[in-house]
Amino acid sequence: MSKSFTGSYTVAVTPFNDDASAIDIPRLHAFLDWQLEEGVPGIIMLGTTGEFVAVTPEERRLLVEETVKRIDGRIPVLVGTMNASTAIAVQQSVEAEALGADGFMTLPPYYYTPTDDEIYRYYEAIANATSVPIMLYNNPVTSNVDMSAELVARLAKDFENVSYIKESSQDIARVRDVIELAGDDMTVYAGERVVDSFLLGAEGYVNPYGNYIPRASAGIWDLLTAGRIDEARQIDRLIHRFDAIIAEGHPTYGHQCYSKRLAQREGFPMGPVRAPLTTFDQLGAEGEERLARIGAIIDELNEYTKQIGL
User: Its family (predicted)?
Assistant: First the structure.
């Protein structure tokens, strides 16, 4: 393993053309250039926000290849390689590594509600087939699987490249438990409650907010590591305010739709989400009303980041 990861990473939306029939490469390139310009220290493609379940194998290869080429080693590129099938998850991971990905972010096998031993064997197969770092992704809200701290520590101790976790269980104590049980074998990335997670020992943050507020999203971690906790908390409070508005309409999957529309608000159109997700246009006046409220908070956030020198 050659790379180590730290900081606040954007889990990116996948750019489609206007009717979502194809991946839009010029939009991808413009978006990635913007992420670099705004100081984002790493990017994750084909996560939950990236609609990984809605792309074809050919589109997956194209997206990974074009992202790796455009980033050109300037920041780490991680790829979501999760699948309910172990064989497909392994194949996608091997392919992503061959295309130049610096690591993977991988949910446990979903839908079947696997046992701990089944989860272990799933990650064992991926770890034995690849050499780059694997970021476990614990998100029981969407996967219906909650990996215990004991299982995470077991995986970290048994496989050298299982070395990161995005912890999104909504249980802040889990961050502490993973760190205590896994020690130096596992680096925790917060999936939520970033300030509290940092204070408990998390070393990074994975979030969708970098799709439309990349400077603030990356900067919140810089503030934390500089000891500017109160300023980081204020950014987090503002994010929480518009996050709550997004959740009003769709508490689980709203980020895909709104992240794309908010990126467009910043000058980076990314196309609509793919069915069965609800597009922003389908939200009608309801979506526009929420967008106006979110936009006002983002404007307040941008003004605050200028005041504190981000």
Answer: Belongs to the DapA family.
The candidate with the shortest Cα–Cα distance to 112, out of 143, 155, 71, 81, is 143
Pair of tokens at residue 41: 């220290």
Closest residue by Cα to residue 77 from 26, 167, 10, 130: 10
103 in Cβ contact with 45 (< 8 Å):
no
Task: Show me where the domains of the chain are located.
Answer: 7-226
Please check whether residue 152 is in contact with residue 165, taking contact to mean a CB–CB distance below 8 angstroms: yes
Residues annotated catalytic, as ranges = 137, 166
Residue 80, amino acid? G
Q: What is the pLDDT along the chain (310 residues), one digit of tens a residue?
A: 456 899 999 999 999 999 999 999 999 999 999 999 999 999 999 999 999 999 999 999 999 999 999 999 999 999 999 999 999 999 999 999 999 999 999 999 998 899 999 999 999 999 999 999 999 999 998 888 999 999 999 999 999 999 999 999 888 999 999 999 999 999 999 999 999 999 999 999 999 999 999 999 999 999 999 999 999 999 999 999 999 999 987 766 688 999 999 999 999 999 999 999 999 999 999 999 999 999 999 999 999 999 999 9
Cβ–Cβ under 8 Å, residues 190 and 205: yes
| 90 close to 75: Cβ distance less than 8 angstroms | no
According to CATH, the topology of domain 7-226 is TIM Barrel (3.20.20)
Count the neighbouring beta carbons within 10 Å of the beta carbon of residue 172: 16
Residue type, 98: A
